[in-house]
């Protein structure tokens, strides 16, 4: 089942690339139209996890992953689908990112669930089985320019996550000046939103809600963040950065 879904996703992604390469119109792929910086073939729908629930152990335990994906994140996706219908959003005509950019025009339900869905979809992709990867290429150069070093970036980002009071997210963001910056948002807000103080395109996001870590780390959010660096999928983060 999961393999089948994966190959379907690969097929869609490759079809999109092939269409670009041959100059075919992307109108045959409405879900991709105008959404070049989005990372999912159908951004309004929860995508299969790119790995097993236990893949991120020992950093994130299988039960936390399963509850997080099938309960918390699935609920955001369902509530987003309801809000999109209730508030008459044409998902063929607008991207999820554009909806987030103008989210102040919609209800609190839309804000919480569009943000919650988008943030989790990005979060899953930002992780992979512990590999000891380090940032490379253009992303590594941009990190050196903005922060001085990867270690300095990690310190700032970890502080942003630790110091976010209550529930929220820590972010590495490409801002309007094409500079990398670090910050955090409350609840399920994100830096795409017009209501957010931190603004830009999310490159890397970290969920610091207690549901993301409480079973294993209890109240020790800093321990969770420090361990989390071991499962960051820098190969994905590099691609994401280069797509912006
Ligand atoms: Mn979460």
Secondary structure layout:
Elements: H1 2-22, H2 62-86, H3 96-101, H4 108-125, H5 137-147, H6 150-163, E1 168-174, E2 180-186, E3 201-207, H7 214-217, H8 221-228, H9 234-243
Antiparallel strand pairs: 1-2, 1-3
Helix pairs in contact: 2-4, 5-9
This protein binds manganese (III) ion.
Manganese (III) ion binds next to helix 2.
Write out the strand line-up for the largest beta sheet, numbering strands in chain order. 2-1-3
Order of SSEs:
HHHHHHEEEHHH
Q: Helix share of residues? A: 40-55%
Q: What's the total helix number?
A: 9
N-C termini distance = 32 Å
Average pLDDT rating: 88
What structural class results from the helix and strand content?
Answer: mainly alpha
CATH homology superfamily name of the domain at 137-243: Iron/manganese superoxide dismutase, C-terminal domain
Strand content: 5-15%
The name of the CATH architecture of the domain at 137-243 is 3-Layer(bab) Sandwich
The value of Rg in angstroms is 17 Å
Largest sheet: 3 strands, antiparallel
In the CATH hierarchy, what is the class of the domain at 137-243?
Answer: Alpha Beta
Provide the CATH topology of the domain at 137-243.
minor pseudopilin epsh fold
Low-confidence stretches: 1-36
Bound molecules: manganese (III) ion
């Amino acid at each position: 089942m999961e393999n089948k879904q994966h190959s379907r996703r690969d097929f869609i992604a490759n079809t999109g690339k092939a269409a670009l390469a041959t100059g075919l119109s992307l109108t045959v792929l409405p879900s991709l139209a105008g959404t070049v910086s989005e990372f999912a073939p159908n951004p309004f729908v929860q995508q299969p996890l790119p790995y097993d629930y236990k893949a991120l152990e020992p950093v994130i335990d299988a039960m936390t992953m399963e509850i997080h994906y099938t309960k918390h994140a699935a609920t955001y996706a369902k509530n987003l689908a309801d809000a999109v219908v209730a508030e008459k959003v044409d998902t063929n005509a607008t991207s999820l990112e554009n909806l987030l950019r103008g989210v102040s025009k919609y209800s609190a339900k839309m804000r919480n669930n569009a943000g919650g869905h988008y943030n989790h979809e990005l979060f899953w992709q930002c992780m992979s089985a512990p590999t000891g990867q380090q940032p490379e290429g253009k992303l590594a150069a941009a990190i050196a320019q903005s922060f001085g070093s990867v270690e300095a970036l990690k310190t700032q980002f970890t502080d942003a996550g630790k110091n976010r009071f209550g529930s929220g997210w820590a972010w590495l963001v490409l801002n309007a000046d094409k500079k990398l910056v670090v910050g955090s948002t409350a609840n399920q807000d994100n830096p795409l939103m017009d209501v957010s103080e931190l603004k830009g395109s999310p490159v890397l996001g970290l969920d610091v809600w207690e549901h993301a870590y409480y079973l294993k780390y209890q109240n020790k959010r800093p321990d969770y963040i420090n361990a989390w660096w071991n499962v960051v999928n820098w190969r994905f983060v590099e691609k994401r950065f280069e797509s912006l």
